[in-house]
Design a protein that fits this description.
Shape: extended
Strand content: 5-15%
Strand order of the largest sheet: 1-2
Length: about 350
């Protein structure tokens, strides 16, 4: 706006607001804010987004840099509001639950550095409310496999895991160590309690075992060990042992953990398809797929994440059967150039 904006002050005198120091807002946003009960950090972030959206007459949050507009990032919000970097995703998630904002990737994939777009709605959306409380979201598809032991603890403590993938990557290694230490401590405690506590008279049966026994009682009577026929008595064929579901889950966790270490990414919506491809493989193929990732990490083929396939393509094309590539070459035989910026980001120098 090239002209000043004038309002009437408390003393009836005219107050002139200089060009560039005012913007127009929608009444719907103000009405929603009157009724919303937000945390202090969410209110700070919303005010920051207000300047980056309504101040530019659009819903995409932007800021000026070197005379040009560019998308606002979580790092920008942290610097402008003074909030800690790890608290910004939590505040954005709170605004999303309240129907005031949304965070997306610019290419439809997973949220990651350099591909984040933040929107603040001119007309707020319906809040994600269930029974008067904010809806609890499940664990995201990208939740690290090395953190799996922490899931029951997070649920037991009723914690809300709202961190986004970009921020969480700073804690992958620390979380993996904590999960391993937690498992070890749990085993030590169990062994100690077995020594000092009385054992139950009857072993407890978990829910899965109770359901299985109930189904057996409702089903057909058990087949006798010998079946009489006109030709005489025959022994029924021995059924082949199938792989236990827990073994399959353990191998899948091993795949996800290996893919995480090798930076073979997958989008949030790809996990069901990854499971389908995984289930179509034999046990030997599954083990070979996991070993193939580890081998390519050791040889340096997956040293540059820019050239790595997605996890879904790795399974689709069965790339563990492909010939190993030299670590210094890309897919087209050209020398690799690391343009991903991952090294600087992991070291903490990036946003």
């Amino acid at each position: 706006m090239s002209e000043a904006f004038e309002i009437t002050g408390a003393d009836t005198q005219t107050i002139a607001i200089a060009p560039g120091e005012f913007y127009f807002n929608t009444k719907a946003r103000c009405r929603r804010m009157m009724r919303n009960s937000l945390s202090s950090e969410a209110r700070q972030i919303h005010a920051c987004l207000e300047l980056g959206t309504m101040g530019f007459q659009q819903e995409l949050a932007v800021m000026m840099e070197n005379g040009k507009e560019r998308p606002m990032t979580p790092g920008d919000i942290s610097r402008r509001t003074g909030l800690k970097k790890q608290n910004v995703p939590r505040g954005l998630a709170e605004l999303a639950d309240a129907g005031l904002a949304e965070t997306r990737s610019d290419d439809g994939g997973a949220l990651r550095k350099g591909h984040i777009l933040i929107y603040s709605w001119a007309v707020p959306r319906e809040p994600k409310i269930q029974n008067g409380n904010r809806a609890r979201l499940p664990f995201p598809d990208w939740f690290p496999a090395s953190w799996e032991p922490l899931k029951p603890l997070i649920k037991r403590l009723k914690l809300d895991f709202s961190m986004d993938e970009v921020t969480a990557r700073d804690y992958f290694e620390e979380g993996g160590r904590a999960a391993r230490d937690y498992q070890k401590a749990e085993k030590v405690i169990i062994e100690f309690l077995k020594r000092v506590c009385a054992q139950p008279k009857k072993p407890r049966i978990n829910k899965e075992e109770r359901t299985e026994r109930k189904n057996e009682r409702k089903g057909s009577p058990p087949t006798p060990s010998h079946v009489a026929t006109r030709e005489g008595t025959q022994t029924p064929p021995v059924k082949k042992k199938t792989q236990k579901p827990e073994d399959q889950d353990e191998l899948l966790l091993g795949l996800l953990f290996a893919a995480e270490q090798a930076w073979l990414r997958h989008a949030e919506g790809e996990l069901p398809e990854i499971r389908r491809y995984w289930q179509s493989l034999t046990t030997e193929e599954r083990k070979a797929a996991i070993e193939g990732i580890r081998l390519r990490v050791e040889t340096g083929e997956y040293a540059d994440a820019h050239y790595n396939p997605t996890l879904l393509n790795y399974l689709r094309k069965k790339l563990w059967t492909a010939k190993l590539r030299p670590p210094a070459q890309g897919r087209n035989g050209k020398k690799r150039v690391n343009t991903s910026g991952l090294d600087a980001w992991v070291a903490g120098t990036g946003e």
